[in-house]
Prior knowledge:
- There is one protein chain.
- This protein is of the alpha+beta class.
- It contains 14 helices and 26 strands.
- It has three domains: 1-179 and 464-521, Immunoglobulin-like (Sandwich); 203-415, no CATH class; 442-450 and 524-640, no CATH class.
- It has helices at 78-87, 109-115, 182-193, 195-200, 312-315, 317-321, 388-406, 425-436, 452-458, 463-472, 504-518, 523-526, 548-558, 590-606, and strands at 16-17, 20-21, 46-50, 56-58, 66-68, 99-103, 116-120, 132-138, 143-148, 157-162, 171-176, 208-214, 218-225, 232-236, 244-254, 276-286, 298-302, 325-328, 341-346, 349-354, 419-423, 443-446, 496-497, 535-540, 564-567, 619-620.
- The strands form six sheets. The protein has a ten-stranded mixed beta sheet, with helices on both faces. Strands 3-6-9-8-23 form a five-stranded mixed beta sheet, covered by helices on one side.
- The radius of gyration is 25 Å and the shape is globular.
- The two termini are 27 Å apart.
- The relative contact order is 0.11.
Amino acid sequence: MLPTPLRGTTVRTTAVVLGLTVALGGGALAAPAGATSATATALDGPVALFPSDALTVRDDRQLTGRRVALPTGDCTTVTVCGLATRLNQLDGFDLDPRLALDFAGPVDLDHVVAATTLRRVGAPASEASIGIDRLVLDRATDTVYAHPVHQLQSGTTYRLRVSAGHGLPAASTTFTTLSATDGLLDLRRQLDSGTAYAKSGIDFRGLRVEASVPAKGTTFSYVQDRGAQGGLVTVPAASLASGRVVFGSYLAPSWLRADRTIEQLPTEQSGPAPVGAERLPFVLVLPAGTPPAGGWPTAVYGHGFTRSAGDVLLAAATNSAAGIATIGTTVAGHGYGPRSTWSYTRGGVTSTAPAHGRGVDLDANGTITNTEGSSTLATGAAAAIGSRDALRETAADVMSLVRAVESGSHARLRPSGVTYFGQSFGGIYGTMVAGADRHVARAVLNVAGGPVTEIVRLSPGFRPLLTQSLQVAGLLNSTDATKGYFQESMPLRGQRVTDPVPGALAIQDYLADSTWLTRPGSPETFAPRVRDARALFQVAYGDQTVPNPTSYTLLEAGRLFARASLYRNDLTASAAKNPHGFLLNPVEFPEGFRGGQAQVAAFLGTGITIDPDRGGDVWEVPVERPNVLRRLNFDAPQFR
């Protein structure tokens, strides 16, 4: 049996509009405190619109002055109840809300599209209204679900309106979006003011060197601490041709609690206090030779999902040749356990250095996997948080690393003009950093996309994770293993669904609420803050790990298509392979590796965006036809 949805799916939409209390599943819905309550009556048109500020209560502790107050209904699982509880802590609705337009009778979708708009309350008359897209029609309840064409602004009130015409009467409501960027900005402000360091007991904010060795002639391995039962496993790592490799650590404030969540406080406050200090690892690759006056210009590298700071050894080669030092740390929950070490062999002599693995035994089974602790447990009251808070913590860790470089504690590094580049997961939290922290001079974000929930849904590799979540929530609706045992009937941009499969609407509702809750830790939220030429985005055509529609969403949210380049792996000899890892893989993607690395080094060093193949077909700089990214550009079973 499916849990009763938090809001409209196959029942009348949970909303209070125009002073009417609307029925939920045939029962009376109690209006939130402060909302006008009346008996529902028949209307010749929409009987409910969602979202609506009628589903909030006044809260002066919030930046928006509101707090969400959704009725939870009969939430029959811990996961769904936890989701409902956390949504009701937020100060507004999603930036890309799943709109629900509940009509009294059959409607024509073309007419609904023409009649429905969103507009900022108080916007000048010259500001264009926002239309709707990605429509789903539920004929059983005459409800149309849709999304705004453009991502909405944080902490802003909008009017959702259905205009009269074509048999549709006029109806409208207002709703306010959540202060989605506030949480991470609070952490950054605490770093800037020094309060985060003071409350964490951190006196030295710089880099502590623990080992330093010439790169040439040295081989490196990562010795993984898997926990009490798993033992230590040595995994080969890269060797560099020249320069010097430095292993070390730095102290950073940590806001991440044991359950991998960050305390949610009213947004008017300055954010939660750190829970303590954490010693974080770094790997630094210095170019060969004598540094210029003032030190080597420095780029922070952000590694991908399942990886560690060791990827700096792969990412630094081109930078080193260009005279740029590269440094990186390990993402929260990555790098296996705390006993992990670096092993390096030179001249037949093997030495070790601590790697400060950041994995935790979250499920208490005695073994630490390579991403354990990078999200909440898939079961329990915190399950809906997912990777939201670990991503925010990681973004703050990168900001702390930037400030550790700026401290001047390493004499060979220039303490100003620090840049950033990140691949995959590193592009995701790197976009958050680029949007939140002006200490980062320039950033290259490689194969990033958002929201994270959509990456999981659309990627064949990550889709099983969503299967697990839906199973826990009791929402699986298919026996087809190729589709992940669920079918969601969710259209991409420019598409419509008029006959969703049974159970799909409940899945859509669950995914919409999950995306809403996790939006403060997703990159598209921060894309509008990347407003100048400080960033360059690299996208891989047909990426099966971070699918192209999610890259489109990220770029569209910040109007960043002019700041993006497209690697057309489909036009190379590697066309049959998933191009997601082209930046770090010279063997399988030689054109992507050479061109991508050259573009990174040029942008970080000079701020100039080069065309790696000088007008050829493999690189589009900038993206010439952005709409091509609205498609998956690979064969996905869930869309067959």
